[in-house]
Amino acid sequence: xxxxxxYCPLASRYVPQWKIRLxxxxxxxxxKYREYAATTEAWAVLFVKKHLRKAQGHxxxxxxxxxxxxxxxxxxxxxxxxxxxxxxxxPKYPLKAEFTVNGKFDERTYIMMVRAxxxxxxxxxxxxxxxxxxxxxxxSITGVSYDKNKGCKGFFRDDAPAAIxxxxxxxxxxxxPLWDRAMNYVNEPEYVYKIKSVNLFRGAK
Length: 205
What we know:
By secondary structure, the chain is an alpha+beta fold. Helices cover 32% and strands 26% of the residues. The protein contains five helices and eight strands. It has helices at residues 17-37, 40-51, 107-131, 162-165, 179-182; strands at residues 5-8, 13-16, 58-67, 77-86, 100-101, 104-105, 137-147, 191-201. The strands form three sheets. The chain has a four-stranded antiparallel β-sheet with strand order 3-4-7-8. It has a two-stranded antiparallel ribbon with strand order 1-2. Strands 5-6 form a two-stranded antiparallel ribbon. Strand 5 and strand 6 form a beta hairpin. Helix 1 (17-37) crosses helix 3. The longest helix has 25 residues, at 107-131. It starts with a strand and ends with a strand.
């Protein structure tokens, strides 16, 4: 006899075997997406979506990128190059009911599943368009990270109030009550990041 039902501990009941297989497939896809989400490519895609309005409604294909190695911010890139492809395939998302067990909706897993399906669809769509020789709208974005206080030679930053700047005359005297505020203006490296250039073009640059 063919076994059509199997006990599912998650749902605490017997469910069709095809649903068990579907659950295992979903879990495998989510694990693959989690691995991808930790890559430089994934951060580069987020970077493009943040700084390039034209990316809305398109799939982002990264061809080359380089982060600022010393920066703690994963979205600080020296440059990101790639192409924008129109979205021809539409992701097919599962029903929320499939992620509801005993009346409780598993929102976290559902959102992760939606992201994983979107990611899988984007790569499939891009791959198919490349096979058909579809030319994307290419982009090149560069950014720069620099120390905004680099040119400041004093003990305090240039934006410090005059009363605090006056403390530089005798740095060994810490009796002045202004020192509590003054420590907020000490001249230390303060790195900022900004976009340097954004270029869009067709064909080879």
